[in-house]
Write a structure and sequence with these properties.
single chain; alpha/beta; seven-stranded parallel sheet; five-stranded parallel sheet; 47% helix
Length: 641
């Protein structure tokens, strides 16, 4: 510590004692008093920042940390404190720039370099992050967290093999939270590249580890990693609860609000996906078709500003759009409360870029999870999960920490303004003219060795059929081709589709005859795109939300028989359909002719049903009643009121 002005010594010691006791406000006041005596003491500013940051006073903490850094720019503690304050406000670019300004000849240990690498990763300066992480490992090669973060960086650079090796190293070095995180990502990356050489053993290790974790070892694991593996609904809910408790630790809910402000029902949507993203694609027309006389809608947006037509369309459909990227979670929650939000709807759950934990401050009387995360959040601050009788039957209520709120048809909204261009000739797509085209355009992490066994059985039983898949990455293409060959499916019966724009993708989809779904994680938006393109979807509903989505969609298109009762039925029906082009043609024609009147694509009816469900939540809360399961009510026909 610097030599303090004699008058500041007493305040310094008082502040340090208060910090140790967790008395943040008292500590901040003591350091403030000390700075009046000695305003040039960097460590006094540093500890003031620490006290204010612990008290979630982010702006004054940032100011204090900046003063400390300016007084001692070569002190790694002042730099890391300022970076932490900026990071807590999601000011990621500024956070990375703080490290940029650190003097070249100042000391850097492995922890400092780890923090710098993470700041560069968060700022999406990925190549620079790789370089810094390697420097950290040169100083401390057995640091499991650095190996894990380096793996994340390689993953985002699409260097899947390098990422996998980093995760394996982290697993070998750690037996706690980092091991579990790395194991989940190792399984995911192996599935993404379809390198299944150790998948069975790695998946078994992950599932076994889930039952041993506690709030400490499981706090960093995103439950999203469990959706594509055979985790039970109970495991998904438990891991969701552990993660939710970790994210909301220390949060004290806001005081109960006063009397409700008169006016329309105020609905606030929270997401980072209000740009060109699948969630925005699904939500756009629902927001446009809302009853603006009854509902006032605000977007609390921490999205990329990508300037796309979809981004502008989403924003134009709502009454208010607030950019909350650089507000703290508490500040966003307080803004929701100040705005008088009646129903807060989170669209992210446990997915990347989520900030759903800010609802732990209880900014709204009714809080809902919807659309973005197909499982229970496990959060005790979420009242309702919106589903439907197929995807969330009330008999499965025990799988959810939330109360199930059912829409009468599929839970998934859709956009009738979605493009529907004419289908190009099959020859342009590399498809044989006389074949039955079975397709699956799911991401490769949803495909498993077992799914390939079933598809190979269908292809063996239907010699005129070909399998059409999306070329997600070169590794997956090579491995899938090899795996199918091992199952007796020749390479010439596999057609690979490159990535295309949404419009071009839907146009080419119309050339397919039947979509083969995957489980335990179904096609979601991908399935509704297929049905929109008049391609029937074959699936088997399972025990989890994510494994029942395609069944929900097919039922909402009048094709419940395509939701098979068993895998044997899936193979039998898939084989029969692949040998009956006339029947497939009839199913496609039915979808084509009735597209706009099917419940899945009747956006006006969906909007009325959805708003009626929100109204039931609101009226129940206004009557002083607690949340409860809301079974599907009859669909509202006719014109909107």
């Amino acid at each position: 510590m610097n030599t303090l002005h004699p008058g500041a010594q007493r305040h310094w010691h008082h502040g340090v004692q208060a910090l140790r006791a967790g008395q943040w406000q008292e500590a901040a006041q003591a350091f403030t008093d000390g700075l009046r005596q000695d305003p040039a003491d960097a460590l006094m500013w540093l500890n003031l920042a620490r006290a204010q940051l612990s008290d979630n006073r982010l702006e004054p903490a940032t100011d204090a940390a900046r003063r400390a850094r300016d007084l001692q720019p070569g002190n790694p503690l002042t730099v890391r404190m300022l970076a932490e304050c900026l990071s807590r406000q999601n000011r990621r670019e500024e956070c990375a720039e703080v490290f940029d300004l650190y003097p070249a000849d100042a000391p850097r240990d492995a922890d400092f370099l780890n923090a710098q690498g993470n700041a560069l990763f968060q700022a999406r300066r990925l190549h620079e992050a790789v370089d810094i992480f390697f420097k950290a490992l040169a100083l401390q090669v057995d640091n499991a967290l650095v190996h894990y973060r380096l793996g994340l960086t390689f993953r985002d650079l699409a260097l899947n093999r390098e990422a996998t090796e980093c995760f394996r190293t982290a697993i070998a070095l750690d037996d706690g939270a980092v091991r579990l995180l790395s194991l989940s990502l190792l399984v995911h990356e192996s599935r993404q590249s379809c390198d299944w050489s150790t998948l069975e053993a790695d998946t078994a290790a992950l599932l076994a580890a889930l039952d041993q974790v506690n709030d400490t070892t499981g706090q960093m694991l995103s439950p999203f990693a469990l959706l594509a593996v055979d985790a039970t609904p109970e495991q998904q809910r438990r891991m969701g609860a552990i993660r939710a408790r970790s994210l909301s630790q220390g949060v004290v809910p806001l005081p109960a609000p006063g009397p409700r402000r008169p006016g329309r029902i105020r609905v606030g949507y929270l997401s980072s996906d209000f740009h060109h993203h699948a969630t925005a694609v699904l939500m756009a027309e629902l927001l446009e078709r809302r009853d603006s006389a009854r509902f006032e809608v605000t977007l609390y947006c921490h999205s990329l500003d990508d300037g796309t037509p979809l981004m502008h369309r989403i924003r134009a459909a709502c009454d208010h759009h607030l950019d909350v990227r650089h507000l703290s979670n508490e500040d966003v929650a307080r803004r929701m409360r100040d705005d008088g939000i009646d129903i807060a709807v989170d669209l992210k759950g446990h997915t990347r870029g989520s900030r759903f934990e800010l609802l732990a401050w209880r900014p709204a009387p009714v809080q809902v999870t919807f659309l973005g995360y197909p499982a229970s959040t496990g959060a005790d601050f979420i009242d309702y999960l919106i589903g439907d009788p197929v995807v969330t039957p009330l008999a499965q209520a025990g799988q959810y920490s939330e109360h199930i709120a059912q829409l009468p048809h599929s839970y998934q909204p859709n956009d009738r303004q979605r493009p529907l261009p004419p289908c190009p000739p099959r020859a342009e797509l590399g498809l044989p003219e006389d074949a039955v085209v079975l397709c699956c355009f799911n991401q490769t992490y949803k495909i498993s060795p077992h799914m390939l066994d079933l598809w190979a059985a269908i292809l063996h039983g239907a010699p005129r059929a070909v399998l059409w898949m999306l070329r997600w990455n070169a590794h997956a293409e090579a491995h899938l081709t090899q795996e199918l060959a091992a199952r007796g499916v020749a390479a010439e019966r596999i057609v690979w589709a490159p990535k295309r724009t949404l419009e071009d993708h839907i146009a080419r989809l119309r050339a397919a005859d039947l979509f083969l779904d995957t489980w335990p994680c179904n096609a979601h938006t991908t399935a509704s795109e297929a049905l929109w393109a008049a391609v029937p979807v074959l699936t088997v509903p399972g025990p989890t939300f994510a494994s029942r989505v395609a069944a929900s969609l097919t039922c909402a298109c009048g094709l419940p028989d395509l939701a098979c009762a068993s895998e044997a039925d899936y193979v039998a029906l898939g084989t029969a359909l692949a040998n009956d082009p006339a029947l497939l043609g009839f199913l496609k024609q039915q979808l084509e002719e009735h597209r706009l009147t099917l419940p899945l694509f009747d956006t006006d009816r969906y909007a009325r049903d959805y708003e009626a469900l929100l109204m039931r939540m609101f009226e129940r809360q206004q009557a002083g009643l607690p949340p409860q399961a809301l079974a599907a009510a009859p669909s509202l026909e006719g014109d909107a009121a």
